[in-house]
Automatic annotation (TrEMBL):
Species: Adhaeribacter aerolatus
Coiled-coil annotated spans: 3-58
Record's protein name: Uncharacterized protein
Keywords attached to this entry: Coiled coil
Length: 98
């Protein structure tokens, strides 16, 4: 094999290597994008689970209040007071997390 053929072969190897590096970089970028999307979706799921939990808590409060209260006015007052307590507890929990 002559010097010219060796040079051409080296050029082909270099071109293939350049393509491989480009593909590798593209794959890395796609992977990073997918990882960011996964983190975003995990946060969204966590927020939705918290919303569901809060909704279930409100529903349970309503059931408890309706069972305890004799009339609609009392039920509303009890519900408001319980919601106030829950907000205060949530603030305390958030404070403790920080």
């Amino acid at each position: 094999m002559g010097a010219k053929e060796e040079l051409e072969q080296l050029n082909r190897i270099e071109q293939k290597l350049t393509k491989l590096i480009t593909r590798y970089n593209q794959a890395q970028e796609a992977l990073e994008k997918a990882q960011r999307e996964i983190r975003h979706l995990e946060l969204t799921v966590q927020q939705k689970e918290e919303e569901i939990k809060n909704f279930q808590n409100r529903e349970n409060i309503t059931k408890i209040v309706n069972t305890i209260a004799a009339d609609a006015t009392s039920a509303t007052e009890i519900k408001l007071k319980i919601n106030e307590y829950i907000r205060e507890i949530d603030k305390c929990i958030a404070y403790l997390r920080d």
